[in-house]
Amino acid sequence: MNTSTLIAPPALVRRAEQLDTKAVQALDSAHFIHPFTDHGDLATRGSRVITRADNIYIWDSEGHKILDAMSGLWCVNAGYGRKELADAAYQQMMTLPFYNSFFQTTNVPAVQLATKLASLAPEVGGRKFEHVFFSSSGSESNDTNVRMVRRYWDLLGQPQRKVVISRHNAYHGSTMAGASLGGMSGMHAQGDLPIPNITHVEQPYFFENALPGESESDFGLRTARSLEDKILELGADKVAAFIAEPVQGAGGVIIPPATYWPEIQRIVDKYGILLISDEVICAFGRLGHWFAYEKFGYRPDLITFAKGVTSGYIPLGGVMVGDRVARVLIDKGGEFNHGYTYSGHPVACAVALANIELMERENLVGRVREEVGPYLAKQFERLIQHPLVGEAKTCGFVAGLVIVKNKATREMFDPSLSVGMICRGFCFNNGLIMRAVGDRMIIAPPLVMTNADIDDMMRLIQRALDLTLQELRNKGICS
Ligand code: PXG
Fold first, then answer.
1. Which CATH architecture has domain 48-78+366-474?
2. Where in the chain is the domain with CATH 3.90.1150.10?
3. Which residues contact 41 (CB under 8 A, 6 or more apart)?
4. Which residues are CB-neighbours of 364 under 8 A, at least 6 positions away?
5. In this structure, which residue's CA is closest to atom 9 in ligand 1?
6. Cβ atoms within 10 Å of 35's Cβ, excluding its own
7. What is the atom index within ligand 1 of the atom nearest the CA of 248?
8. What stretch(es) of the chain map to CATH 3.40.640.10?
9. Each residue's pLDDT tens digit in the chain (479 positions)?
10. For FRET with 382, which of 40, 98, 139, 366 sits at 20 to 30 Å CA-CA?
11. Nearest to residue 283, comparing CAs of 258, 267, 300?
């Protein structure tokens, strides 16, 4: 294909009418393998081409303005168009665009960021987070966790402690270890996953998995105890770590009952098992704290982060290494044969520093905890009044609702009807990005939203639900 008509010079790409959408779609389909995409389907529909963004909105090549209630992919916490972040990248690129951190070298932004992150992670129960390992993504960071955890137990003379326990419907990334740690059956079905020594226990999803008559607090205890059952089944001396998201994100914004995390903490303490808190989504203000363990009050040994650390402006991830693990690796470990070319990338670290500075200056974390988070909760939880909504809950700046056929009995629609996708379609076509996970509709808006922005978003959500109801009634699927 002749590409000369396709893309205007970069400065003009900002004007949507300069773009030949059909040509972009054809080349996209011809050359670009997308993540988690059915390319047969994509070839017939054509991708939506996103061309620019500002604050909480994105625009496509046809000029549609869309409220991005998913913050890109759970990451643009500071909102789009933040000049400070672009300036930080530019200046760092002109000063030192890259140097590695192997061979006893370092760079200033990486040192500054590690120091800053250590200061943001509060000590809990005598456990401190004074060290950081850097990667470029959440998946890489979870691979690092598996390697670090095994190294830790090897160094302590317990090499048989290899099993990492995770949960069904968890998401921990898409590399071999990440996809194995995750509990997504569709991912496991492709490529002989999970890899050995990774296993899964129950998720704390009350709405779907509670027994008849079971209270939410009993359910929280029962699901946490599925971890203890698994430990006893495997033998405690074989178990290295338990990994979990504070609130499951990609699994559908599953907010655990209040009894869940304290019981998990009791169990990991009892058996001496390391606790990995995967905060790729939940850290950096998403739940109203810099790190989410603070909200739930548990004591992790390792914390995975990525996404919001740079507000998604540039790839960066890592692991906050608690003292329990760091002391063993450092004092007994010698060389840990692990690392990535881009561990401590100076430009990524400079952008993260600028992002954190911006978040501090605008008090984005405190606002989520005390102002816009509670306001979102109030507005979103009202959706329970809608005839299609069986549950509507928020936690900080994540929220999820379930579309049900019958509110009283919690009967769901037949999955083959893909009601969530119908609703998602109405969102998209009416200027709102909201994700569907089965028939759960979820959001994770940029933390810069004002109460007025929340009102606008709620109107769009309400409209999408109304249109979905109308469509289901027209088709005779519900009354
Ligand atoms: N852990 C968690 C908790 C995540 O949410 C990862 C690890 C992996 O991060 P990277 O940077 O390697 O993608 C994630 C990523 C979705 C969706 O559909 C969620 C994620 C990624 C892609 C899609 O909600 N989360």
1. Alpha-Beta Complex (3.90)
2. 48-78+366-474
3. none
4. 77, 78, 285, 358, 447, 448
5. 138
6. 6
7. 3
8. 88-361
9. 444 455 554 444 545 457 999 999 999 999 999 999 999 999 999 999 999 999 999 999 999 999 999 999 999 999 999 999 999 999 999 999 999 999 999 999 999 999 999 999 999 888 899 999 999 999 999 999 999 999 999 999 999 999 999 999 999 999 999 999 999 999 999 989 999 999 999 999 999 999 999 999 999 999 999 999 999 999 999 999 999 999 999 999 999 999 999 999 999 999 999 999 999 999 999 999 999 999 999 999 999 999 999 999 999 999 999 999 999 999 998 999 999 999 999 999 999 999 999 999 999 999 999 999 999 999 999 999 999 999 999 999 999 999 999 998 989 999 999 999 999 999 999 999 999 999 999 999 999 999 999 999 999 999 999 999 999 999 999 88
10. 366
11. 300
Q: Say if ligand 1 is within 6 A of residue 145 CB.
A: no
Taking the centre of ligand 1 as the mean of its atom positions, its distance from the CA of residue 438, in whole angstroms, is: 17
Tokens 């932004």: give the residue: 109
The CB of 308 under 6 Å from ligand 1? The reply is no
User: Ligand 1: distance of its center to the CA of 465 in Å?
Assistant: 26
C-alpha span between 147 and 79 (Å, rounded) = 34
Q: Which atom of ligand 1 is nearest to the CA of 250?
A: 24
How many angstroms separate the alpha carbon of residue 411 from the centre of ligand 1? 29
Does ligand 1 have an atom closer than 6 angstroms to the CB of 306?
yes
Q: Tell me the pTM.
A: 0.96
Quick one: tokens of 377? 């909760």
Which residue is it, tokens 């639900």?
465
